[in-house]
User: Which sequence fits this backbone?
């Protein structure tokens, strides 16, 4: 059922939406997060994630071609609320680029409940910093049939709106876990997976030989790569054979290169 239209940007429910959008602490306290855009919302719902409530602006829904998605959400019987354009723009992450905003329940990301979805490659990201990069990587891993993603001491909130947006909502169906460096390293050692460390300083160039099934690819932070802590676990160190003047690639581009090569050789 839809409540009366919210006309004021100072409405307490709109203020709460803004807090969820901006504050990792608020997301942790409430156990929910902010999602904007019909396609991303539906992708998350289709992945089995719980949509608590949603807000919509009729004129913007029509403008951005989200009418059918709105009807689909309404048919689910999820609580909803209509907003004016000025109110929707206030709550919006992109200042009114979509007509629907949803609030979804977060989920557990511990290594103790982590279960890979297939026998494909596993991606391990150490100290990932940029939410847009993380979201893009999750989308890339999904596209290449990856088994899942493990985040070691991440410097970004997994439920940041930019992670959601960059992943196009696909992060909801991707097995993801996070933990400390020590816990992640122990998990990898116990996993019996072949572990590949990626570094521009490695001697071996990607593509020279096939990676074993279920290989875990270990990637360092955008700034400094893999530090001394990770010198022990890898079974081999590999780099991308760059032909130009660039010393390295964007983290998402690097992940894509390795996963493409893994699939090409299997």
Assistant:
């Amino acid at each position: 059922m839809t409540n009366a239209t919210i006309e004021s940007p100072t409405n307490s429910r709109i203020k709460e939406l803004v807090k969820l959008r901006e504050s990792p602490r608020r997301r942790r306290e409430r156990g929910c997060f902010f999602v904007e855009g019909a396609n991303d919302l539906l992708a998350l719902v289709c992945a089995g994630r719980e949509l608590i409530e949603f807000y919509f602006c009729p004129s913007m829904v029509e403008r951005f071609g989200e009418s059918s998605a709105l009807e689909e959400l309404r048919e689910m019987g999820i609580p909803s609320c209509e907003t004016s354009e000025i109110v929707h723009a206030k709550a919006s992450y992109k200042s009114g680029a979509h007509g629907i905003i949803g609030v979804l329940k977060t989920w557990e990301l511990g290594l103790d409940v982590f279960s890979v979805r297939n026998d494909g490659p596993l991606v391990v990201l150490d100290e990932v910093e940029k939410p847009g990069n993380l979201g893009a990587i999750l989308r890339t891993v999904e596209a290449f049939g990856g088994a899942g993603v493990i985040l070691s001491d991440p410097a970004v909130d997994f439920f940041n709106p930019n992670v959601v947006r960059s992943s196009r909502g696909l992060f909801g169906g991707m097995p993801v876990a996070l933990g400390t460096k020590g816990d992640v390293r122990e998990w990898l050692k116990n996993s019996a997976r072949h572990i590949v460390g990626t570094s521009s300083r490695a001697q071996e160039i990607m593509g020279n030989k096939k990676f074993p099934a279920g290989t875990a690819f270990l990637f360092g932070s955008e700034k400094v790569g893999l530090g001394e802590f990770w010198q022990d676990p890898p079974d081999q160190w590999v780099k991308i054979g760059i032909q130009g003047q660039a010393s390295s690639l964007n983290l998402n581009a690097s992940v894509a290169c390795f996963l493409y090569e893994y699939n090409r050789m299997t």
The domain at 111-265 is CATH 3.40.1280.10 (Alpha/beta knot). Residues 122 and 230 are 16 Å apart (CA to CA). The mean pLDDT is 92.
